[in-house]
Description:
The chain is α+β, with helices and mostly antiparallel strands. The protein has a single domain (6-143), classed as 3-Layer(aba) Sandwich (SMI1/KNR4-like), CATH 3.40.1580. It has helices at 6-20, 26-34, 70-79, 135-143; strands spanning 43-47, 50-59, 87-93, 98-102, 111-114, 129-132. It starts with 5 loop residues before the first helix and ends with a helix.
Amino acid sequence: MFKxxxxxxxxxxxxxxxxxGIELPDDYVFFLKKVDLPDFLEVNFSQHEFANATVxxxxxxxGVRNEINLNTNYDFYVSSGRVPSEVLPIAEDVxxxxxxxxLKGDSQGRIYFWDHEEELNVENLSDLTVVANTxxxxxxxxxx
Length: 144
């Protein structure tokens, strides 16, 4: 993995947003631009409202190896119907569960937890667990 320069990042982002018909929230874009994802791996996530303490194994981004690329994972999870179209998978825990970023309407900016064990029971956004109201709150929960 490597950190891409800002010009390449902007091209990846614009192409991704155009192809998927979505707009990434500013706080998430800032995170992707400023954080070297390989250095931000293996962080703990535990929050009192969220019963499952877990470790984030992979962050999805641009210019990274295929299995943790945003575009690849969007196609694998969203385009295939495994997760609702209102969210974008942004991270994966050690058990293969996902943290997803809400993209549309009331879900925009919220962080959801998708449990792969419950995949067959997920029909819409209400079947996912809200773990943070904003991406910034999610990062704060990780940092504490």
